[in-house]
Design a protein that fits this description.
Blueprint: E1 13-16, E2 20-32, E3 35-44, E4 49-54, H1 55-58, E5 64-65, H2 69-79, H3 90-103, H4 106-122, H5 127-148, H6 152-164
Antiparallel strand pairs: 1-2, 1-5, 2-3, 3-4
């Protein structure tokens, strides 16, 4: 039997950074290289995909519980606040934002959405950066939708109203 510590429960919604919001479908033990390993079986609705993540690797991959309603509201506040100027070199900007996305906190994701949204108003984003913006926006929408228990369309409107307020 694996001695991994189970942090999440079946039916719990979790965030898998850069993949989206998922639900713990089951927790299963599988044998791998003659060793019994405990896995979270996570269903990711956004990509209609089921993945298996070793329980003892979940934290290292940044998998975390959905944020509270209060934290979701703080992230929405953040996207409406003044933002720091970001590097004009898109490669540097891309790497900074990619690192933030991998960290995966809702505040980091909100910061990416805010900075790239405003950057795109100045100049069209390069394709890679546009994809990063789209991913971050989708992650933010999904997590806030689940956290606030509101329809996705309402959350999208909330996000864009705050972005446009600056």
């Amino acid at each position: 039997m694996s001695d991994a510590v189970v942090c999440f429960k079946i039916n719990q919604k979790v965030v898998y950074p850069s993949q989206g919001v998922g639900i713990i479908f089951s927790i299963e033990e599988k044998e791998f290289k003659n060793e019994k390993i405990l896995y979270y079986v996570i269903y990711l609705e956004v990509s209609d995909m089921t993945i298996m993540v070793p329980v003892d690797k979940a934290e290292g991959l940044g998998i975390r519980a959905i944020v509270s309603e209060e934290e979701a509201l703080q992230a929405l506040e953040l996207i409406g606040e003044d933002y720091e100027p970001i590097p004009s070199d898109w490669k540097l900007r891309y790497q900074m934002n990619l690192d933030l996305l991998k960290k995966g906190s809702v505040m980091d994701i909100a910061a990416i959405v805010r900075s790239l949204y405003h950057r795109s108003k100045v100049k069209e984003l390069p394709i890679l950066e546009r994809k990063l913006y789209d991913s971050a926006l989708k992650l933010l929408e999904d997590e806030v939708t689940f956290s606030l228990k509101k329809p996705k369309e309402e959350v999208e409107t909330m996000i864009f109203n705050r972005l446009e307020s600056k």
